[in-house]
Amino acid sequence: MHTALPYDCWKAIAEHLPHNDLPALSLVSKDIRSTVEPLLYCTISWPWDEPVPTRRILRLLRTITHRPELSSHIHHLSLVSTRDVFSSEPWTPPGSDLDWDAEQAEYRDVVSLAQDLVDDALFPDAGKWKQALRDGDPHAFASILLSRLHNLRSLRLDYKFVWMSGLPGLMLKHALNPTTPASAGGTASLPTFQFLETVDYGSNARIAQRIEEEFELDTIEGYPDCEPEQFKAWFYLPALKALAIWLRDARDINTNSNIHQLHTLILARATISEADVPRLLSQTTPALHTLHLGLAYRWGQETTLANGTELLRGLDAIAPSITNVSLGLEYYPPTFGEYYLDNEEEEARRAPFDGFLLRLRSPRRVEVPVTLLVGWDSTRSLDDLSAVLPASVEEVCIRLDFGGVGSMDWTEVSLLEWVERHLEGLVSKRPNVREVVLRTWAPLKVDWSEEKRVEVSEMCAKVGVRLDVVDDELGVGLWTRV
């Protein structure tokens, strides 16, 4: 009979089954259920698409409240959107998969349990939390669920958590750094996430809403405001090794943080100042081998590379150890030609970055905006592309950042022609390079560039280099992810 098999055998069998088959297997017998249950709960991965899975969150929270031993089995939690959101779409709150007004009575017990936890743990702004729970806010219930998962190893949360509430970060801040000595005792019911090594907190942040007319620059805020206190605590997780975050505020992230433990740091569309960069990166150690530094600048209020020397100082801090590095620069909100920059001023600010990649000791994969690598003038020809790439580089990605700027000379075709001009020297002087990727802003894609893509791809293939062209929303680096 099936129950005659030892526990280890059933566990080995279950581990090789598709996750969707485990619920059916768990119904076979009590013995098998006890074997399968840890695997059934080990990974919770639900798309945070519209409608968001509020019912699942509520039911899981109810289950682990009544059976708290199950929470120890949950090692991986992912609530991230699976669909692309394009820059033409407005920022609207996601809908839920339940009608809260009509169905809330069914979950009255969960609301009460969650509110009791808020009281027991002495949450700051308890009234705000309890009101969100009464209103059926899925982000609030997901944050309470997170506060029950003391055995987590990895966590991925959608950018909507950053934008809509910031509650996960506020909960974590209270768990790790109680606001007052008197509240420290109350946080005993909150985990300190001693095993949480990998965190993605909103790195899938979408590009700001695109504008169609110049006058909208003053009426569209670009990125919505968000709670500034939600970010700090993520840098203080005790076991943190990899962090990806949509960092909107870098205040108070100081030398007491655990940045020195990181091997991967992803700063996605960060709206921090350039002066914050060396302060953060100087806290890293040779353990850091992967970095994406993406900075977003509010058009009309900020200027890219106004403090470019600070960025260079930050890169110097990670130069000895970094192997995968990606840089991204953007103005927001994006548009189709209403930004007209003074290219001479832009070039003057960029000048200190000539050959800046050579500061890195042994990078293997680099991704960089063409304006930073070459300049704003697409007709400019470097004497030798290989001269600005470290000899260790194997894969190169050149980004067409600033695609919405009216004075931007670079296009996909001019980028392809530029690669064409430098291919021979690149192959002869940087033989380690095996892949070149051109990354462009999807809304600017034009069909008539396809012929040139094929032509240059075939030329690259003949000399043993793979050429790829990626059209997307220019998010985090292709090789720098958690």
Structure description:
By secondary structure, the protein is α/β, with parallel strands linked by helices. The protein has a domain at 2-44. It has helices at residues 7-15, 22-26, 30-42, 54-66, 100-103, 108-120, 126-134, 138-146, 159-164, 167-176, 276-281, 308-318, 343-350, 370-373, 412-429, 450-462; strands at residues 43-45, 76-79, 154-157, 198-201, 242-245, 264-270, 290-298, 324-332, 365-369, 395-399, 435-441, 466-472. The chain has a 12-stranded parallel sheet with strand order 1-2-3-4-5-6-7-8-9-10-11-12. α1 crosses α3, α4 runs parallel beside α8 (138-146) and α6 (108-120) runs antiparallel to α7. It starts with 6 loop residues before the first helix and ends in a 10-residue tail after the last strand.
Report the helical percentage.
25-40%
Q: End-to-end distance, in Å?
A: 43 Å
Largest sheet: 12 strands, parallel
- How are the strands ordered across the major sheet? 1-2-3-4-5-6-7-8-9-10-11-12
Categorize the overall geometry: globular
Low-confidence stretches: none
Instruction: Indicate the proportion of strand residues.
Output: 5-15%
Total number of strands: 12
What is the structural class? alpha/beta
Order of helices and strands: HHHEHEHHHHEHHEEEHEHEHEHEHEHE
Helix count, DSSP H or I runs of 4 or more residues: 16
Which radius of gyration do the C-alpha atoms yield? 25 Å
The pLDDT mean sits at 88
